[in-house]
Amino acid sequence: MQVSQDTTSAHGDFGNNSFLNSMGAFKEAQAARMRYLRRHMKLVRRRFVKAHKYFNARNRAAASHRLVMRWNRAYRHEVKRHAKAIKAHKFAWRMMKKAFQAKMKATKYHKITYANLRNAIKNENSTRSTFKTWNAKWQAARRNVKKLIAEMRLNSYRRNDAEKKYKRAHRQRINATKIHDHAYLRMKKAIRLHKNRKGAECVARTARDAAAARRRSAHARLRRAHHNHRRAINRKRAAYRAAIKAHHAVRRHMRKNLSHF
């Protein structure tokens, strides 16, 4: 009668000697141990997956940190290049402004010398006409020297005076011509210099704009890298917490079901 009771009520556990009551108790204890092992292996597998996710997230965070540092270096380099381009453009603009002022001054001086040259030519022509007139009169008086000696002396005086005025006007015209030629060369040189400085300023402005565009692009990549880095750090932290949680679940399950071993 006792044997049939052991056979019908089979409840066994490996934590004590109850699994020796009967074969049913042993099988139930073994089934409970297998259920524990299946649950334990699930938890171990979850801990393995969570730990690998954490290590993957940590590696990605380190890689994103390296990427952030690289883009940060590139951004600082582009900032320096942009500042250098701005400085070169300001220098080129100042040189162009000086060249333009020099061109304007040379043009103004050229106009003044051209007006002086015209006045000198007009004065020379007028004195030449006067000299020719008095020279003709002197020649006529010279042919009639006996009758017109007094007139000849007067005409000689006037002729000499006109000749002196003509020579002085002629020298002034020559000087005005030299000054005009010099001013014209200075004006041409200033125009060429202004043209060259203007081209250099255009090149410097283009370089400055290109450096600014590269800086904006590098800054955008840096911000994107910072965003990815923050996301990677958050994923790493979440994966770390999940791995710790899975590990604690495994340890709690082991402590709770320690009797199955």
Biggest beta sheet attributes: none
The CATH topology turns out to be Helix Hairpins
Our count of domains comes out at 1
Q: Mean of residue pLDDT?
A: 85
What is the helix fraction of residues, given as a range?
A: over 70%
The backbone outline, from C-alpha atoms, is rod-shaped
- By DSSP (H or I, 4+ residues per run), the number of helices equals 3
Count of beta strands: 0
The level 1 CATH classification is Mainly Alpha
The poorly predicted ranges are 1-9
Report the portion of residues in β strands.
Answer: under 5%
CATH architecture: Orthogonal Bundle
**Assembly state:** single chain
Structural account:
This protein is 90% helix and 0% strand. By secondary structure, the chain is mainly α. The longest helix has 121 residues, at 23-143. The two termini are 32 Å apart.
Helix/strand layout:
Layout lengths: L1 H7 L14 H121 L5 H108 L5
Write a compact overview of the structure shown:
With 261 residues, the chain is mostly helical. The protein has helices at 2-8, 23-143, 149-256.
Question: Notable features of this structure?
Answer:
single chain, 261 residues, mainly alpha, Helix Hairpins, 3 helices, 90% helix, disordered N terminus
